[in-house]
Amino acid sequence: MSEQIRDVAKPTPNREDKCRFPTEIGDLRKKIEAALRPHVAGPSYALLDFPDYFNPGDCAIWLGERRILSRLAESAPSLVASILSYNRYTLKALPASAPVFLQGGGNFGDLWPQHQLFRERLFADAAERRVVVLTQSIMFRSPRALERARRAVGSHPHLTLLVRDLDSFSFARSQFDCASELCPDFALALDLRRPQGWDRNSVFFLLRSDQESAGVANHLDRGHWRCADWPTPHFLRRAWIHRAGLLPQRAQVRIADSLSRWRLMKGINVFAGAGAVITDRLHGHVLCTLMGIPNVLMPDAHGKNRGLYETWTQHIPGCAFAETPTQALAKLDELVRA
Length: 338
Hints:
Blueprint (H helix, E strand, L loop, with lengths): L13 H7 L2 H14 L9 E3 L7 H18 L5 E3 L6 H5 L7 E3 L2 E5 L3 H13 L5 E9 L3 H12 L4 E5 L2 H10 L3 E4 L16 E8 L19 E3 L5 H4 L11 H23 L2 E6 L2 H10 L3 E3 L6 H10 L5 E3 L3 H13 L1
Parallel strand pairs: 1-2, 1-3, 3-5, 4-5, 5-6, 6-7, 8-9, 8-10, 10-11, 11-12
Helix pairs in contact: 3-9, 3-10
């Protein structure tokens, strides 16, 4: 695992990134740093809403956040917590100048309400601090949930919302009374290596099986193609970081990072032997792009996949977007032949 994911606490220099990744990815990393740099006030800060559940994509985001923040602040977080382990009194013990950064992802809205409710609670707990919601896609289905979010956002005088696609950016500007900025997904800051032993002629479908699925699997001959979603056995879904609440913060940071690396590699191993990947998982696309695996991204149920692709990744070599499995296979053939 250590050979495939570099230590997030010791990020590789930019000159190495330029050697190993397309210029387009290097440019996206510069945009991430530029968006975050004005909000880093010193070595003390909190990084909250740790993804203490099995989702390799959210773990990739966490590790990317750790890499960029460690580079800018030149330190590890003073406080990390999941939605289960968070304690407002621990937050109040930090210096008043310490900003709060909240985990990015695709859950600013009511698709995954427990994280949105935590976020809105945190806005009240940290009303006197600078708070930055790291890069999110936005999706609200309930007018009531949107109105509650508007009130929570509008009540915080020092809040910045980073968004990862143009539609979410337009929505944030029109609906929320706070600073909003366009920023790439933090998983793009990772330094990943393609696992060895892959089959050049093998195509793998990484397909969602949750509420964000657009039903791609319904149009796929499962008997002909290798396909799966992220693994979710019971022992991998369990939360762990809240059990470490009595340990020193330095130990909790190490546990959070180790869990994230392990869960990320468990996800990557699902398609590690494939020569090419077709996926409706946003971070399946991002991870394959980082590892140089030809990949085609397909739609999710709410448009965040297309939004990220059209905003950030469409010009990176080795990836494409398609509406159907048939179109995806045709585009994948073009990528492999290029």
